[in-house]
Design goal:
single chain; mainly alpha; 10 helices
């Protein structure tokens, strides 16, 4: 299972970093958000499961990991930082790399926490701020990034991006948190 998780993580990263997502989704921001959510909610946990020695080294307190991830995600969604990632290759690499690192920290911290309820709490906090950011993107009355990125306003693309954040992140973090809660209620269960 570990090898399959690791190979899946690498294959998904290759697909989502090279596929013409903007053309498929019809919106650049939606493609950005799909890459972001795949990194933090799908690829990162697969890497943690697939590379347990590395994830053991990166496992920090679930609360601290959730705080780091919060800072990284919200910082990159400020218009100036998003513009840097949109307009600059090195900015894009820095953004995507920090998303992946923050995601690995969250999943390693939460899945490897000595107390599964602490891990569940970290995933709940992460889910809450991701849900809030997704809702803000959906409900914003205007395109928040068009001016700084020098693109035509695309409120629909921004709303699709926010919906992707809600549709991918919320259920994944919720299910993982429930699994950790079940582990806390049944301590005989083996850790991944």
């Amino acid at each position: 299972m570990r090898r399959a998780a690791f190979i899946s993580a690498v294959a998904l990263a290759a697909i989502f970093w090279t596929a013409p997502l903007a053309r498929w989704l019809g919106a650049e921001f939606a493609a950005h958000m799909l890459r972001h959510m795949m990194l933090v909610a799908v690829i990162a946990p697969l890497l943690v499961i697939g590379a347990p020695r590395l994830s053991d080294r990166l496992a920090i307190s679930p609360l601290l990991a959730a705080a780091v991830e919060f800072a990284v995600v919200w910082a990159w969604h400020l218009p100036g930082a998003h513009g840097l990632a949109f307009l600059s290759g090195p900015g894009f690499v820095a953004e995507q790399g920090s998303f992946l690192l923050a995601g690995v920290l969250v999943w390693a911290g939460c899945l490897r926490a000595p107390q599964p309820l602490a891990g569940a709490g970290g995933l709940l906090l992460t889910s809450m701020h991701m849900t809030l950011l997704g809702a803000l993107l959906v409900l914003a009355p205007r395109d928040l990034y068009a001016e700084i990125c020098g693109t035509a306003p695309d409120l629909t693309g921004q709303q699709i991006g926010g919906l992707l954040m809600l549709a991918i992140g919320t259920p994944i973090y919720l299910v993982a948190g429930l699994m950790l809660t079940a582990r806390a209620l049944n301590p005989a269960q083996v850790q991944p």
